[in-house]
Amino acid sequence: MFVDQVKVFVKGGDGGNGLVAYRREKFVPRGGPAGGDGGNGGDVIFEVDEGLNTLMDFRYQHHFKAAKGENGMNQKQHGKNADPLVVSVPPGTTVKDAATDKVIADLTDHKQRAVIAKGGRGGRGNARFATARNPAPEIAENGEPGDELDVVVELKLLADVGLVGFPSVGKSTFLSVVTAAKPKIADYHFTTLSPNLGVVESQDHRSFVMADLPGLIEGAHEGVGLGHQFLRHVERTRLLLHVIDMSGMEGRDPYEDYVTINNELSSYDQRLENRPQIIVANKMDIPDAKDNLELFKEQLGNDDIPIYSISTVTRDGLDELLYAVADKLDEIPKQEEQVEEVDERVIYKFEKEEAPFKITRDDDGAYVLYGEKIESLFKRTDFSHDQSINRFARQMRSMGVDEALRKRGAKDGDTVRLMDYEFEFVD
């Protein structure tokens, strides 16, 4: 089964907690704080494995969670950092944030890596909080939680040549003749339900990868038929072979087919309009094909687009076509290099800093605090020690939380809610 798009959940490992501890050796009076820091949580990393060609593994596993960092230990020992969770993906994989549709990574080369979910930082132990005023602090931090998000993983086949055209024009048969691929072939529409890959070697020993994509029909870019599911695979091909049935056996006009398919490609992605293309006039062994080809050339009226006549049954014209494809690929760079002018001036952009917290009211009258900064501070606080609680209260006061609550009308005894916890406001 060919799987080329999945939605999965990834979570970086949480950081380990810092420790509150003191030196207790027999001959070391007042040894002082000795709590170590927690280790960092593991990252979730996607790595390209050129041996894979589908996302089949993701079909059976939808959750990827990295390990948690080890907690801090006595004698100022740092907890062990967690190893990253490395997930293998095939070349041509694109990873997008499911919530924003933003591309996180585009993985094409073997062993290329990208951090998809970063692990949390380990919390500091009480040895890090010792000062002259407080030489024996009972303060430690919890580890930060790792990033967690839903991502959409898409596979876009990395083929040099893509076969496009209406269903039943002979793309699968052509691929089976020129490569060792064995696609399913039959006389009804949509025999090809998933892309097929094959390696072609011409008579002069030049090789390239060819992909047979499911047949397109009118409206494919809007989701009609099966072809729209695989239009993404056309994006990465360097050359398109537009296969057209010149026999007219199914009552379709070859030129109308040609125009329709090109409209579908450009409607899906404007860049495909300028993608190099070779027209393959197939089924030329059928009597009416030659007349249809002459009429097609008149309607096309463009001598710049090469046209090659072939028959997959008699194998006429195949060698000439493969030579032409190999020659064209030699002219096309494997990756389009984007050259940008470098501006030597340094421009500093100052973005308005997001407020550390915001306040709303719940239906029950409770004041609700929320915001990335205050929630992160709350998660790192170890509420099992009074000094940690007092430190959290001071940090909230320095943020301006108390003053903001007073302005919103908070009074003694009012409920203040932060995440899943409730506090009593004391003026």
UniProtKB/TrEMBL annotation:
Annotated Gene Ontology cellular component terms: cytoplasm
Residues binding Mg(2+), per UniProt: 172, 192
Subcellular location: Cytoplasm
Signal peptide as annotated in the record: none
EC number from the UniProt entry: 3.6.5.-
Keyword rRNA-binding: no
Residue ranges of domain OCT in the record: 349-427
Ranges for domain Obg: 1-158
CDD domains named among the record's database cross-references: Obg
InterPro entries recorded: G_OBG, GTP-bd, GTP-bd_Obg/CgtA, GTP-bd_prot_GTP1/OBG_C_sf, GTP1-OBG_CS, GTP1_OBG_dom, GTP1_OBG_dom_sf, OBG_GTPase
Keyword Ligase: no
MF annotations from Gene Ontology: GTP binding; GTPase activity; magnesium ion binding
Domain OBG-type G as annotated: residue spans: 159-330
The protein's required cofactors: Mg(2+)
Gene Ontology biological-process entries: ribosome biogenesis
PROSITE patterns, per database record: G_OBG, GTP1_OBG, OBG, OCT
Any single Pfam family the record assigns to this protein: DUF1967
Broadest EC class assigned to this enzyme: hydrolase
Residues where GTP binds: 165-172, 190-194, 212-215, 282-285, 311-313
Entry keyword set: Cytoplasm, GTP-binding, Hydrolase, Magnesium, Metal-binding, Nucleotide-binding
Family recorded in the similarity comment: Belongs to the TRAFAC class OBG-HflX-like GTPase superfamily. OBG GTPase family.
Subunit note: Monomer.
Function noted in UniProt: An essential GTPase which binds GTP, GDP and possibly (p)ppGpp with moderate affinity, with high nucleotide exchange rates and a fairly low GTP hydrolysis rate. Plays a role in control of the cell cycle, stress response, ribosome biogenesis and in those bacteria that undergo differentiation, in morphogenesis control.
Name the UniProt record assigns to this protein: GTPase Obg
Gene (UniProt): obg
